[in-house]
Amino acid sequence: MRLLLLSLVAILAAQASAAPILDGVRDGSYPLLSVQGVQTQFGDGNPGGGSELDAAWGYIDSGVLYLMLTGNLENNFNKLNIFIDAVPGGENVITNNTDFGGNNPSNDGWAGKYAGFTFDSGFAADYLLILRNGNSGGDRFDIDYTVVGGDAGAFETSGPAFGASLTGANANALPGAGIGVAFDNSNTAGVMGGSDAADLMAAVAVTTGIELGIPLSALGNPNPADIKITAMINGSNHDYLSNQFLGTLPAPQINIGGDGAGGFNGTVGQIDLNNFAGNQYFIITRVPEPTTLALVALTFAVAAGGSPRRSRG
Q1: Which of 36, 131, 147, 229 has its C-alpha lying 20 to 30 A from 244's C-alpha?
Q2: How far, in Å, CA of 127 to CA of 50, rounded?
Q3: pLDDT class for 229, splitting at 50, 70, 90?
């Protein structure tokens, strides 16, 4: 365990010196923010046949948040949903879309399935990014930017961000918000399939996945120290949550599903993240600094606190 902790601390102490190349491959400038503590029940990446979130890396440079989520996203339109708490206000409990008495847009059908979903106390979502890939009249990768609670028209969608390809890079995928995205789905390592505690060093070692460049202007020009992020893998209709969250769920942990226990009920609105140990979010630091043992110890403790994969289409 001592060697594991020392190795992770060495990684955490990395310094960011310049903006990264947006290509879906993590470079050495990224500091570690969160590590996956649970094996995946949404299929072990091989690489296209499963979804996993191995680790989160990120920092801010020249007014842009660079965020790297290593791992895989299955090409069946499973969703990678990234909720961001950046400014005062937001929704701790997600409301429905405006057609059903709520405050949210209905892009990609997300709000109706999340209505009632409760984040950890201290987290209120202001923005949402929805990422998915698959084949619908041809291969495609799509990304949506959503203002949570922003009413019917408060979103932007990319269309096929990489043309007729599942992977690639597009520095201007969402021109209105100025958001760029890249995706490299080649990982075959990282966390294994299952519900037990993950191999933390294997998760940290993954270098490919989703990479984003998000201008702070798209996040309400927040104080960088206030930015919190929760990332989760959901089914293709936003109605069946996996066990892949960053910040991590405690192990052992099966898929959350729609009822918190792996069951399917057509919605994730019954889920309350306060019922799971630890914070299922991580915090961005503006300028990476040498990090103490605190993050490592917390991640290791959460992972030690420890139904077959399902995809809904």
Answers
A1: 147
A2: 26
A3: very high
